[in-house]
Specification:
Length: 398
Amino acid sequence: MQVSFIITTFNVRPYIYQCLDSLCAVVAPGDQVIIVDDGSTDGTVEDIRQILASLPWPENIEHCPVFLGRNTHGGVGIAANIGLGRASREAVFFVDGDDWLLAEGVRRARQRFAAGSDDILLVNYLVFDEVTQSTTEPSDQMVWDDLPPDPDAAAARSLALRMNAVPWRKFYRRAFLQQHAIRFPEGDFFFEDNPLHWQICLSTQRIGFYDVPLACHRLNRPGQTMSAAGADLTAMFQHYETILGHVAQLDPDSRPQADQWLATNMAWQLERLTPDAVFVYAAAAETALCGARRRRWVRDSLPPLVGREIGFYLTALMDGGAQALTQAWLQMFTARQMRQAQEQLAGVHLQLEHVVVRQDQIEQMTAQARDMALGSWNQMEFTAAGNPGQKGGSCGDG
């Protein structure tokens, strides 16, 4: 099975060599390497040209660099779709330009996908924190623990929809993507991999899983989409509408899980929201959950969330709309700020206690040293007084 690897880049110059070097180690003869740069301004394009020319690629690798020149609106959707339009191999695999691949995991997952008949294969990955320089498991690691040995189609779909939607953890059969006209949503928004993930999972009865890490995903780098904390987060409500459209067309029984998806994402976003964006976010939430949809949420989706922080927010939204959600958020935000201030103050108190203890120790050590010095001086005077004949030297009579 030959693979079209689609790498999307935008201002990732510090990381692009590691990315392409790791890709060079896993491609096989006949593969296709499609790089779509979305208008980088930091020298990424120049580095890509140099790296493509200098790395020891296997024979018969087709390189397809696409340099857009200007940044497209929204997130990765347009660039990724351009890459899909260029793909010509049997399988498709996405790579983020600031991530890197784990060779053994990619090889094993590729073999697994080639040997089976799944339309998509979801594979595990690792997360690398750029700030702490540490590697951890992804946030959906616990879903793998719920994976039965041989899930039926419904169970596989439900589990796949619980996993992080990122596109660079999956092998896709290109014929399947073409058959269902699957593409990223395009628009002035981010997080477009979520509706794509739902469309894919709802369109197939053949979903495979492979619990081996095949990539290291970089987090907390400057300019990253996941660091958004303002009005950009309202895109999730637009994606919710798109997802509900896929659900209605492909699998109406998945609607409760779509509601759970929105609640989970709202919980994540409300922790990161900035005060200047809260009312805009709340208004978008009210619009998304109004009318008959609100009544269904109150009846079916909200009760399991009672007792959780997101349940508190959603109850406020259902009872009083955007204004009530804004007030609830400000209440929680103020409480969180007070807790942080108290924790910081407690840390200062602890440091002061350490300073006081250290000062006491220094004073004790100083007193001990003074006592020892006085004792030595007194001993010297006593010795000198008891041996007057030896004072002044130790020479003989001469």
